[in-house]
Amino acid sequence: MTESILSVEAIRKQYATVTAVDRLNFQIREGEIFALLGPNGAGKTSTVRMLIGITRPDSGRIRYQARAGEQAAITGPELGYLPEERGLYQDQPVLDVLVYFGRLQGLSRRDARGRATQWLERLDLGERATEKLGALSKGNQQKVQLISTILHRPRFAVLDEPFSGLDPVNQERFLDLVRELRAEGMTVLLSAHQMALVERLADNILLMNQGQEAMTGTLESLRHDSGLGTALEVQFRDQPPRELPSLSGVQDSRRLDERRLRLSLASDSDMNELLGALQGLGAIEALHSERPSLHDIYLHAVGEKGPNSEKNDAEEMTA
Ligand SMILES: Nc1ncnc2c1ncn2[C@@H]1O[C@H](COP(=O)(O)OP(=O)(O)OP(=O)(O)O)[C@@H](O)[C@H]1O
């Protein structure tokens, strides 16, 4: 789990006048789930395409520790790739499509058939194996596509937007499934826009913006580096004073409604001291605290409004 399976050193990719990826560095350890995040156009797909050898970096270096030795990209049967543009054969029966892909990855027909049948049953598609793929809903097609990616048990799976088109129940199943693959030792590079899911899945996160690293690390370290503190919602029994006194450790405060305040705390604020000060403003009926989510951190890092400066109809208060 500690060995680096992939090392990316200052890679750069330019398309005409656009620098899609600009001296990007990161490492992925064997057996981890690594999330590559960023706004549209940040350079995620361009990065993935270099990692799997579809394109080559203009400069910089990619080193993949394949079983047979170091490679400049993740290629061959060690790779399982779920592309953003889904491209399975719509007019073929589901099972045949999967067997075909399994065969392409070196499985015997019998093995591919056996594995595909198991996976289809597991994902509630067992009874639809003989139907044409195009007859399935988008979410079910997505399941088939994921099966085709991992059927041959790749060592390194690259999943581009694996959750798109899935309902919440199936999102949870995909989450479990990816965790299971990790437990079996598979390394997973995940690119997705569903921050709440990524937050529960990723061991390490790289947040890209404009081709460069905006932040990287575990969720905990991103929380720390973002400087975003906990948000505290306080509900008073009666309306608190209109003019709030200065509250130590509070960076920002908003009135949510007549009796509720939302306070953004500095990361080093003293909760006991603050609670004492709040009690001085009136009887407290309820408290709810929330650590910054990946969603908050993401918005903060890519320059959008952060969680602590959300626009709200409620009037601003002086802390
Ligand atoms: N083949 C190409 N030719 C020209 N420009 C390209 C090409 N591929 C990507 N780009 C440009 O490079 C930049 C990064 O694009 P990329 O597709 O890597 O972003 P992304 O992070 O994957 O975005 P999204 O979340 O929308 O998929 C964009 O400005 C894009 O227009």
Task: Please describe the topology of this protein.
Elements: E1 4-15, E2 18-29, E3 33-37, H1 44-51, E4 59-66, E5 69-71, E6 79-82, H2 94-104, H3 109-122, H4 138-150, E7 156-160, H5 168-183, E8 187-191, H6 195-201, E9 204-209, E10 212-217, H7 219-226, E11 231-236, E12 250-255, E13 260-265, H8 271-279, E14 284-290, H9 294-301
Parallel strand pairs: 3-8, 3-9, 6-7, 7-8
Antiparallel strand pairs: 1-2, 1-4, 4-5, 9-10, 11-13, 11-14, 12-13
Helix pairs in contact: 2-3, 2-4, 7-9
The structure holds adenosine-5'-triphosphate (ATP).
Adenosine-5'-triphosphate (ATP) is lined by residues 15, 18, 20, 38, 40-46.
Structure, briefly:
Helix content is 29%, strand content 29%. It is an alpha/beta fold and 319 residues long. The structure holds adenosine-5'-triphosphate.
Structure, explained:
- Helices cover 29% and strands 29% of the residues.
- The protein is of the alpha/beta class and 319 residues long.
- Strands 6-7-8-3-9-10 form a 6-stranded mixed beta sheet, sandwiched between helices. Strands 2-1-4-5 form a 4-stranded antiparallel beta sheet, covered by helices on one side. Strands 12-13-11-14 form a 4-stranded antiparallel beta sheet, covered by helices on one side.
- A hairpin with a 2-residue loop joins strand 9 (204-209) and strand 10 (212-217).
- Helix 2 crosses helix 3 (109-122), helix 2 packs parallel to helix 4 (138-150) and helix 7 packs across helix 9.
- Bound molecules: adenosine-5'-triphosphate.
- The site of adenosine-5'-triphosphate has 11 residues, from strand 2 and helix 1.
